[in-house]
Amino acid sequence: MAGGDTGAPRSGGIAQGDAFSKREKANEDYTIRMREKEKLLELRKKVAEQQDHLKKLEDHIDELSKSSGGEQK
């Protein structure tokens, strides 16, 4: 095969391909970690919102219990 033909080895040989592959994999890994971090932050935000909502519901239930003549637990 002549240089430049489809399937021909790169002119830098294996060492250059390995460096490129390692760099490319590192970039992909970094991108994946960043996406996972963003997803985790979003999930934490949703959990906090749900906990706040539950707290409000509990407070409302307590208020209704007190106004109806006492707590029943």
Structural class: mainly alpha
Distance N to C terminus: 84 Å
What is the H/E order?
H
Radius of gyration: 29 Å
How does the overall form come out from the CA principal axes? rod-shaped
Average of per-residue pLDDT values? 84
Q: Helix content range of the residues, please?
A: over 70%
Q: Work out the strand percent.
A: under 5%
Keywords: Mitochondrion
InterPro entries: ATPase_inhibitor_mt
Family: Belongs to the ATPase inhibitor family.
Pfam families: IATP (PF04568)
How does this structure look, described?
- This protein has 73 residues and is mainly alpha-helical.
- It has 1 helix and no strands.
- It is rod-shaped and about 85 Å long.
- The N and C termini lie far apart (84 Å).
- The model has no long low-confidence stretch (mean pLDDT 84).
- GO terms for molecular function: ATPase inhibitor activity.
